[in-house]
Write a structure and sequence with these properties.
Keywords: Signal. Helix content is about 5%, strand content about 35%. The protein has about 400 residues and is mainly beta. The protein folds into two domains: about 210 residues, no CATH class; about 120 residues, no CATH class. Strands 3, 8, 9, 10, 11 and 12 form a six-stranded antiparallel sheet that branches. A six-stranded mixed sheet has the order 17-24-25-26-27-28, with no helix packed on it. A six-stranded mixed sheet has the order 22-21-20-19-18-23, with no helix packed on it. The longest helix has 16 residues.
């Protein structure tokens, strides 16, 4: 009995090291995600669709997965190719490798796999960096390459994720060739071939999330920046962009832009992915160019005037001409009601304006429109005065009726 248990454990260990996941029943199944390193984070390209397999076979029976990752290989297997096993999307007909399916660098082992995922039946997919400008997804059985799909260079740490969608393995390879933008391509494994579902690469500011929603659908979630507001990339509102995946891939739209997008969605989004729509958490007036708070803003009534002080001080000051509440007295110098909010400090109310606003500009700001400087956002409401806050939601409200710091 002890020898039998030891033998079974050895078989499970060999399957795991060979790049397979193992169910509790001892069945080898597809691994889910492999990355050789972290993916980092431009607006998405349009995505076309390709028809799916005409004869997809049912998805293999999969038990609860015990191990789901594989180890990237150092190069192709040196032994003779093995005969392909049962492909989950094959009808049973013989599968023949395509001529020249393997890149030359694979044969001489100068482009080893940098990410790899096992599929049922002894198949696997791998990503190799075939040159300075291109990466490839390879479909393999043993050491034999059966097909390849090319994309732009994905950098040194590509991410490879495979899911079973409509009965066939469907794989997303993505990575960051430079800066902050991740690019990706999606392929469906059908009859020993890689079917490219993305006519143009998909892009994301912050990597991708690829998850199943049901047996026939999956969802890809990325992020985009809205540059039409006229602020820098760092300050630009961001949104989640989603793609549905079946036997094709369709871009569905974006969530509402926000300065700090909430938890990634689990359902397709349908909003616009560009332009200046209202920003989540603000009124309809936020659907306009964002003003530079450093240039100074003045409300439509002229009662409120704010500026982000120059010279890198990071201090935001707002004055108000008329108030219905008591203002501190005893000013020595130029009187005037003013709120001073030093960088990293707490907003305080003073009755001494001095010459603080002498050189501040006065850009008219519409009610509900936003003005920014760094991580400080100010918005003027028709009845609620001005509200200025940072990304940590600290700041103040100043109106004719009150002053409140929070």
């Amino acid at each position: 009995m002890r020898r039998a248990i030891t033998g079974a454990s050895l078989i499970l260990a060999v399957l795991i090291l060979a790049g397979c996941s193992v169910t509790e029943g001892g069945q080898a199944v597809a691994a889910s995600t492999v990355s050789a390193g972290p993916a980092s984070t431009a607006a998405p390209d349009s995505t076309g669709s390709s028809p799916g397999a005409s004869e997809p076979a049912p998805s293999p029976t999969v038990g609860r997965t015990v191990t789901v990752t594989t180890t990237p290989t150092s190069g192709p297997a040196s032994t003779a190719p093995s005969t392909p096993g049962s492909n989950p999307s094959t009808t049973g007909r013989p599968v023949t490798p395509r001529p020249n399916a393997a890149p030359a660098c694979w044969s001489d082992q100068s482009c080893p796999a940098v990410a790899r995922v096992g599929l049922p039946g002894g198949w696997s997919v791998a990503v190799v960096n075939a040159g300075a400008t291109a990466s490839l997804m390879l479909l393999l059985s043993g050491g034999q390459v059966y097909d390849q799909l090319g994309t732009r260079d994905l950098g040194a740490h590509p991410v490879l994720t495979c899911l079973t969608v409509s009965g066939a393995p469907t794989c997303l390879m993505s990575g960051v060739p430079g800066a902050h933008t991740a690019f990706g391509a999606v392929a469906r494994v059908v009859n020993g071939r890689l079917m490219n579902l993305t006519r143009t690469e998909i892009a994301s500011e912050g990597g991708f999330d690829f998850r199943s929603t049901d047996a026939t659908h999956a969802l890809i979630v990325g992020t985009v920046a809205f540059y039409d507001y006229g602020v820098s990339y760092a300050a630009a509102p961001k949104a989640y962009v989603t793609y549905t995946v079946t036997t094709s891939i369709t871009k569905t739209g974006c969530s509402a832009p926000a300065f700090e997008p909430p938890t990634p969605p689990t359902t397709p989004q349908t909003g616009p992915c560009s332009g200046t729509p209202p920003i989540a958490g603000y009124t309809a007036g936020s659907a306009a160019k964002i003003l530079d708070l450093g240039g100074g803003i003045v409300s439509a009534s002229g009662n409120l005037w704010c500026v982000d002080q120059p010279y890198g001080s990071g201090e935001v000051d707002c004055t108000i001409s008329k108030t219905d509440f008591a203002v501190p007295t005893g000013c020595v110098g130029e009187p005037g009601t003013i709120v001073r909010w030093p960088a990293g400090g707490t907003p305080t109310l003073s009755g001494c304006q001095g010459d603080t606003m002498v050189n501040a500009g006065r850009q008219p700001i519409a009610y509900g429109q936003l003005a920014m400087s760094g991580d400080v956002i100010c918005v003027v409401a028709q009845t609620g005065g001005v509200r200025c806050e940072n990304f940590d939601h600290h700041g103040f409200v100043l109106s004719r009726a009150k002053f409140t710091a929070f």
